[in-house]
Amino acid sequence: MHSGILAPVALLALWSMVMLAWTLTTRMGALKKMGVDISKVRGTKPNMLDGVLPDKTMWVAHNYNHLMEQPTAFYAVALALAIMGMGDGLNAWLAWAYVGLRIVHSLVQATTNIVGIRFMLFVLSSLCLVALALHALLGALLN
């Protein structure tokens, strides 16, 4: 059985891979420009490159990390809704809105990084996710 919510799930997963490729290319380019031979670098700590690599390079990397955080809850909720047969209609629209807002958030963070815009996009996408989670909980409890 096909569920409408699965297409936005797949798109967000694919978008995460786009951001991964963008992160790798910008980081490798910045490291090369700095003359860093990554074959000689041993173990790093989270955020070790902040303040070392250009901010614009790190904005892309930070966004990729963000796509590994809250969207994991989106994947779980969306798949639960699909399994319960509740992945169409309003829930599919909320999922598309969530994914669209996250993609725009990525583009803002990776290019201009205007925090006020990013925050607004984050709040709007979070509201979509809260609605989806509530629908999933109600579906699980009432069915």
Structure description:
- The chain is about 75% helix and about 0% strand.
- Helix 1 (about 5-35) runs antiparallel to helix 2, helix 1 runs parallel beside helix 4 (about 90-110) and helix 2 runs antiparallel to helix 4 (about 90-110).
- It starts with 5 loop residues before the first helix and ends with a helix.
- The protein is built from five helices and no strands.
- The chain has a single domain (about 5-140), classed as Four Helix Bundle (Hemerythrin (Met), subunit A).
- The protein is an all-alpha fold and about 140 residues long.
- The longest helix is centred in the N-terminal third of the chain and has 29 residues, at about 5-35.
- It has helices at about 5-35, 55-65, 70-85, 90-110, 115-140.
Keywords:
about 140 residues, mainly alpha, Four Helix Bundle (Hemerythrin (Met), subunit A), 5 helices, elongated, transmembrane, MAPEG-like_dom_sf, Membr-assoc_MAPEG, membrane
Describe the secondary structure blueprint for this structure.
Layout: H1 6-34, H2 55-66, H3 71-83, H4 90-111, H5 115-142
Helix pairs in contact: 1-2, 1-4, 2-4, 3-5, 4-5
How would you summarize what this structure contains?
The protein has five helices and no strands. It has 143 residues and is mostly helical. The chain has one domain (6-142): Four Helix Bundle (Hemerythrin (Met), subunit A) (Up-down Bundle).
